[in-house]
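Read as amino acids, tokens; as here:

___
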Amino acid sequence: MPPRHAVPDSSALEGLWMSTSTERRPNLFIIGAAKSGTTSMHAYLEQHPDVFMSNPKEPGFFTPEVIYYPKDLAWYLGLFADAGDARVVGESSTHYTKVPVYSCVADRVAEFSPNARIVYLMRDPIDRAISHYWHNARQYEEARPLLRAIREDVQYRAFGDYAMQLQPWFEAFDRRRIRVLVFEEMVTDPEGTLESVFEWLGLSKLPTPLALERKNTRPPEIKKSRGRGVVNRFRYSDFWGALSPAIPQGLKDLAKRLALETVRPGDQPTDEVVRHLRPWALERITALGELLGRGFDSWKTSLGDDE
């Protein structure tokens, strides 16, 4: 189900990041982009003996609007209590690059850990948007058809507008502290990508190969809300929860069958979505190239090499 949100008390946040605690603090943040390989990167990095990565992977501490987990400083620092002598202590929260939904994150992180290193992964913007849609559908957060959702919800585009997402971080940190990676290049050469990141972090090369299988990949089949999702939302309502003890199991099973359908995302047509998004993607890739001074030849769908 969707993340629970609360309106943060801004007065309570003032000075939160600047506690005088002597506990270990993260000095590495993998900030996104969502659906661009952050789970794999988190898993790769934590295999290095001089790296400690948080569990949970995405504490989202600097986005107080999202309340998956507690937001007090003691809880957050407790995630790194077992870091020991690790030179690199990190976490990976994709909510940190979800402008315009969450703002001021880069400034909060910079105040909390001004010497931190930042890793940002990007993938073909159209592929990312489609993957984001199916992620939401699998979580029962999205019931609209693919094209309609992409057209109506700015998040599918905004979270893949990498120039916009990076700008606050470039303003808050020295660019030399920010490492921008391309998902497709990591898939093609995971060993080379990891070696370059370890070198950037000042870590030794590992004497034995890492286990570099991809993490958090989408299964071939998923269950999503049927129709407009009305029945499925009802199954998660307080009213249904109150009645649940008295509802026969057969009726619960029927409600589930009516609420959900099985689909194969890879078999769903995307031509219309690609045509709709490509002008936007080309514009934003151009802006990103100007910001970073490089090209993105591996982004075949957005650049028109998918046919």
